[in-house]
Design goal:
The chain has helices at about 15-20, 25-35, 50-65, 75-80, 90-105, 120, 130-145, 160-170, 180-210, 230-255, 320-330, 350-365, 410-420; strands spanning about 1-5, 10-15, 70-75, 105-115, 155-160, 215-220, 225, 255, 265, 275-280, 285-290, 300, 335-340, 370-375, 395-400, 405-410, 425. The N and C termini lie close together (about 10 Å). By secondary structure, the chain is an alpha/beta fold. The protein is globular and about 55 Å long. It has a single domain, classed as Alpha-Beta Barrel (TIM Barrel). It contains 13 helices and 17 strands. A hairpin with a 7-residue loop joins strand 8 and strand 9. Bound molecules: beta-D-fucopyranose (FCB).
Length: about 425
């Protein structure tokens, strides 16, 4: 059986500056340099894929594979390496990335912050700094002015909840500050930053008469009880789901800093600050009660025995993507763009089937009524996977770490076929 994707459905890949560009000086590269033990394979992002200089060839390759969209992030530390000092060449670079996308027939989807921060802001308290919303809004406005009407899809912050969990709750990522207070502060801080940038982008767009749709890239990782029949197991999933999967989105729709982050105070510009919903989905998480895991709110992650696993150890279940889309559509009623979905797969054995299953799941959700506008696969090239270094392979292309030569994997052709025909044929 084969299914068709709607006309105008956006299909392409997603990336992030720190993972592909190379040559960066931000809070992450500082940590890689100063605390090499934080990165599993002790690599540094370094030259990464050298995408900053090779973007034209890379984008042309993706366009030749019938991609119709491309998501990338602007690196704040390049654009504003010192507070208040904006580098025109950096903005012109990103403008050219956008123009190149357009010239190649790919819709650009631009992220303003994807996990990294300039060191000057990190040193002032990062996302928890009281001034961060104003500073982020100023940066967002500079980007919106520079990139202009060629960008209609904006993502302010990539995965605020993931940033708060890894940077603050666990403290494994910059700023390496494990504390519950810090975690809640980071959620509140990123919500304020998002609201400020949402308003800034719209102000610029309105002043010029440009169209802009602004959202976040929300990481949805539903916690499901390992034993659904047990009341305790069901109960233990409720709080982590409410905080990790819903707090931020509810803040954006209600305009309030809800408990446990705030007391319900209103934040200017937060209410209704999602024009669409950017969804990053990789996996669901089975959990069971464990009294010794307070940091995980007593919900211990467990690996189920009935599902295949990626080389990251995450379960692979396309049904989870369909459930995520349908649930978010039902709860928020916003058009959805799947801003990331992918699989860590050393030998490219899982990815061909992954495409078929996950895009079929998207088609099913659309048939069931969900308004889904696009699918961006994570990612085009094997790249620097944060604390995993270069040890995880999410790309359609492998990248020789010596020569940086890109080689397409078999799954790249599978995705190209889907993009070219807008048809998903089940195996
Ligand atoms: C997401 C991140 C992205 C990448 C994938 C594998 O959570 O947004 O940068 O690391 O996971």
């Amino acid at each position: 059986m084969s299914r068709s994707l709607p006309d105008n459905f956006l299909l392409g890949c997603a990336s992030a500056a720190h993972q592909v560009e190379g040559g960066l000086d931000n809070d992450w590269s500082r940590m890689e340099r100063e605390q090499p033990e934080r990165i599993r394979d002790r690599s540094v992002s370094g030259i990464a894929c050298d995408h900053y200089t090779r973007y034209r060839e890379d984008l042309a390759t993706l366009a030749a594979m019938h991609h119709t969209a491309h998501r990338f992030s602007i690196e704040w530390s390049r654009v504003e390496p010192r507070e208040g000092v904006f580098v025109r060449e950096a903005l012109l670079h990103y403008r050219d990335v956008v123009r190149t996308c357009r010239a190649l027939g790919m819709e650009p989807i631009v992220t303003l912050q994807h996990f990294t921060l300039p060191v000057w802001l990190a040193d002032r308290g990062g996302v928890r700094c009281a001034d961060a919303p104003r500073l982020f809004a100023r940066f967002a406005a500079a980007c919106a002015e520079a990139l202009g009407e060629d960008v209609q899809w904006w993502v302010t912050i990539n995965e605020p909840s993931v940033l708060a969990v890894f940077g603050y709750l666990y403290g494994d990522w910059p700023p390496l500050q494990p504390s519950i207070r810090g975690f809640l502060g980071a959620l509140g801080g990123t919500a304020r930053m998002h609201a400020a940038a949402y308003r800034a982008v719209h102000q610029v767009a309105r002043a010029h008469g440009w169209a802009a749709r602004v959202s976040v890239a929300h990481h949805e990782r539903p916690m499901r009880p390992l034993s659904p029949r047990s009341r305790v197991q069901r109960a233990v999933a409720v709080l982590p789901n409410a905080i990790f999967n819903r707090w931020f989105l509810r803040a954006c729709t209600t305009g309030r800093l809800l408990p446990p982050v705030g007391r319900g105070q209103k934040i200017a510009a937060l209410r209704g600050s999602l024009d669409y919903l950017g969804l990053n989905y990789y996996s669901e998480q089975r959990v069971r009660f464990n009294a010794r895991r307070p940091r995980e709110l007593f919900a211990e992650p467990v690996v189920p025995s009935d599902l295949p696993l990626s080389s990251f150890g995450w379960t692979i279940d396309a049904g989870g993507l369909r459930r995520a889309v349908e649930t978010l559509w039902r709860q928020f009623g916003l058009p959805i763009v799947i801003t990331e979905n992918g699989v860590a797969d050393e030998g490219d054995e899982l990815r061909p089937r992954f495409f078929v299953d996950h895009l079929s799941a998207v088609c099913e959700a659309i048939e069931a009524g969900a308004d889904v506008r696009g699918y961006l696969h994570w990612t085009a090239m094997d790249n620097f996977e944060w604390a995993e270094g270069y040890s995880k392979r999410f790309g359609l292309f492998s990248v020789d770490r010596e020569t940086l030569e890109r080689t397409p994997k078999p799954s790249a052709a599978v995705f190209a076929e889907i993009c070219g025909t807008r048809t998903v044929a089940s195996a």
